[in-house]
Specification:
Length: about 210
């Protein structure tokens, strides 16, 4: 990584999850400072050296403490916190966290003058195409689009639409669309990661629970 391409301070939500914790560790290695937001009780999963805040993105008071006061273009926010689920039955907190929580985060980023925001969406927010055809990012995201399958995908599509709305209103925001993430640094060891570590490869049917990343 080129250090000159990165800003002085990063705010990372979901910092106790696989992606979040790896990202925090890499940023710290580059010499930047990190504020990490995690659920109460998950502080131990954050790499040492970060300034850790316990809270919940659905709770405005948590975000008020987490976001620094005053406009600061040197701050980059990475919003990676969400509930991930492939369950056939929709998780009761799915929409509350993935959509309402995301809206809270974007609103605070705008109000506090964050210089840059990166929203971690998912490839599942992009409508699937029949017959294994190649997919591409649509110009408009909606949870009701044909090919957006399942509660998790719908919630992330709705949150992506919110993110793009905030971008249109002036928030400097980018969206990334990762697929499944497996590799070193998964401190909480999802079932899929444990199978991978054992040499069984990635088996989608081993992931049976909804959990935060």
């Amino acid at each position: 990584m080129d250090k000159c391409k990165f800003r002085k301070m990063y705010l990372v939500t979901g910092a106790s999850g696989h992606l979040g914790s790896v990202l925090v560790r890499r940023i710290l290695e580059e010499g930047s400072s990190v504020r990490a937001l995690v659920l109460p009780g998950e502080e131990k999963f954050v790499p040492p050296g970060a300034e850790v805040f316990s809270g919940d993105i659905t709770d405005a008071s948590s975000l008020a403490r987490f976001f620094p006061e005053g406009a600061n273009s040197d701050i980059t926010l990475v919003h990676s916190a969400s509930i991930v689920s492939i369950a056939s039955r929709e998780h009761p907190r799915l929409w509350e966290v993935n959509v309402n929580g995301a809206e809270n985060v974007f609103r605070f980023a705008k109000e506090r003058g964050v210089g840059r925001t990166v929203y971690v969406s998912t490839v599942h927010a992009i409508p699937e195409r029949p017959h294994h055809e190649e997919i591409s990012e649509p110009s408009v995201f909606t949870e009701n689009a044909d090919g957006v399958v399942g509660g998790y995908a719908r919630s992330k599509a709705a949150a992506t639409a919110l993110a793009l709305r905030f971008a249109q209103e002036g928030l400097n925001l980018s969206v990334v669309f990762p697929s499944g993430i497996i590799g070193p640094g998964d401190t909480q060891k999802k079932e899929s990661q444990r199978a991978f570590d054992k040499g069984d490869g990635f088996r989608q049917d081993t992931v049976r629970s909804a959990r935060r990343i």
